[in-house]
Write a structure and sequence with these properties.
The protein is an all-alpha fold and 491 residues long. It has helices spanning 4-11, 20-26, 31-44, 53-61, 69-78, 92-95, 97-100, 103-107, 114-135, 138-142, 153-157, 173-193, 199-212, 220-243, 247-264, 267-283, 287-301, 307-323, 327-342, 358-371, 375-388, 394-410, 414-427, 434-447, 454-468, 475-488. It comes from Streptomyces nigrescens.
Length: 491
């Protein structure tokens, strides 16, 4: 039996991390409402769980790293096809028996150990098998979910009929729920794998969602959910286009979401659309538009009781001021963003903002300083962004590390930049993003004069090999992203 000291040391091995994936699955329900839904689902399958708001809070805070078997069966019933890691939990082997002793290694976001990588691959393969049942049947199939999965899409698309209007030309709560789940599923895929490979496939459920807006809906509450869901789906698909370097497509999707928000009078959706529009404008070298869109978003969000949303919109505004080389304007917006962020999370925070934590604040701040030409300050914030990032957001880990590499290269630290670049190359085995490849290309260009340094030579060689081995599906997005980078630079 382990001594108290040993148990204490073990408990400190893996600190609790908020379960942002599970928070996304809760959606708009309060913790108490979600707990009631869990209990109802348990009764449907003959389980008995005493779920309450406190339990939900413990899960979302990360205190419960893996549910017991009864809760696991209930959660799988509620979210068909999703595995425990998909829901943000640690794999059972990581908290039971032998696996628990290596949990610290498994949790490391930048680990390059081959055994660790094999474990992650195994988990992903298990997830793929279970997702097939989810994306090829039921309400998910009606919305074209099969088109979303980057591995199974080709085979599944042959088995799933094209989306059709609901029976009798009417849409109800089931269709609204399917649209909301499509949004969550796209975001989970993007968090882990990046935008490329799923953008074009994601347009199918988007078309199906907007078709539902033409169906007969008896209840205003369902109509509002359908409009909000379709708008959020348009933003999610727009982000996939944005991150793939397809700026014109992204602009169109964001405009569609903004129009939907105004049709149904949804201030939260309007603020979200303006937030993403501002980000896109900054990346497309339209900084004045970025400032105006961010300010419009703040106007839409002022009554939403979400300081964190206003904080993110202030950061979007700061990015626009940085693009205009307006240092005082940027610094004022950054200070406002930090002050609002410090006010803490609120119940009114939108579901889509689960990604916005200290790491994102630091990463976006780094981008502003980089655009202002202060590479040293940018590198400090990028370091913080990498260190604080939740392992769930694999894509963001790769992005912030790529930004760190670019900032270090610009700041005259070639060996450190090369080391960060190598970590990104390892992560690109799981993540596909034109934005990240563009940042690496910028770093490689900056480091070429230092090719005699062994770490730099290693990075340049591996980067060249990775570029030569890019898949056929990468070409279109890579070209768009690299063209944009010539105008925008880092960020």
């Amino acid at each position: 039996m382990a001594s108290p000291a040993a148990r204490s040391a073990s408990s400190r091995t893996v600190p609790a991390r908020p379960n942002t994936a599970f928070r996304q699955l809760r959606g708009r329900l309060s913790p108490g409402e979600f707990a009631a839904a869990v209990r109802r689902s348990a009764r449907e399958i003959g389980e008995q769980v005493s779920c309450d708001a406190r339990y939900v809070g413990r899960v979302e805070s990360g205190e419960i790293r893996c549910p017991n078997y009864a809760y696991e069966r209930v959660f799988r019933h509620m979210f068909p096809g999703l595995t425990l890691p998909d829901m943000g939990f640690a794999p059972r082997e990581a908290v039971r028996g032998r696996g628990a002793r290596t949990a610290a290694v498994s949790a490391a976001p930048l680990a390059t150990d081959p055994d660790h990588r094999d474990t992650r691959i195994q988990i992903c393969e298990e997830s793929d098998v279970l997702r097939r049942a989810f994306i090829t049947g039921g309400p998910a199939a009606a919305l074209g979910f099969a088109a979303l999965h980057p591995i199974e899409a080709a085979a599944a698309s042959d088995r799933v009929p094209p989306p059709r209007p609901p029976a009798g030309g009417r849409a109800g709560a089931a269709e609204a729920t399917a649209v909301e789940q499509a949004v969550r599923y796209i975001r989970l895929l993007d968090d882990r794998h990046g935008a490329e490979g799923i953008y074009h496939r994601a347009t199918q459920p988007l078309r199906a969602a907007y078709d539902l807006l033409e169906a007969d809906v008896r209840h205003r509450s369902v109509s509002d959910r359908l409009h909000t869901g379709a708008g959020e789906l348009a933003i999610s698909v727009g982000w996939l286009a944005h991150d793939s370097g397809r700026f014109d497509d992204a602009r169109s999707h964001y405009a569609e979401a903004l129009a939907t928000a105004r049709v149904c009078g949804d201030a939260a959706l309007e603020a979200h659309a303006f937030c993403n529009t501002a980000f896109l404008a900054r990346d497309a070298a339209r900084p004045r538009e970025a400032v105006r869109a961010a300010q419009a978003g703040q106007q839409a969000a002022k009554h939403l009781a979400s300081p964190r949303l206003l904080s993110l919109l202030a950061l979007r505004e700061a990015g626009g001021w940085a693009g205009l080389a307006d240092r005082p304007g940027c610094e004022q917006a950054l200070a406002r963003a930090e002050r609002l962020f410090a006010a803490g999370p609120r119940d009114g925070d939108p579901e889509w903002m689960t990604f916005y934590g200290e790491a994102e604040l630091a990463g976006l701040t780094a981008q502003c300083w980089s655009a202002l030409g202060d590479a040293g300050r940018a590198a400090e914030h990028a370091h913080r962004a990498v260190a604080l990032q939740d392992p769930h957001f694999t894509r963001n880990i790769a992005l912030f590390t790529a930004e760190l590499a670019a900032d270090l290269a610009a700041d005259g630290a070639p060996e450190e930049a090369a080391a960060a670049g190598l970590r990104v190359l390892a992560l690109l085995e799981e993540v596909r993003s034109a934005r990240i490849r563009t940042l690496l290309a910028t770093t490689a260009h900056t480091l070429r004069p230092h090719h005699t340094l062994p770490p730099v030579a290693d990075f340049l060689s591996r980067h060249a090999t990775a570029g030569a081995g890019a898949g056929a599906g990468d070409g279109e997005a890579a070209g768009d992203g690299e063209a944009a980078a010539e105008v925008v630079g880092v960020g």
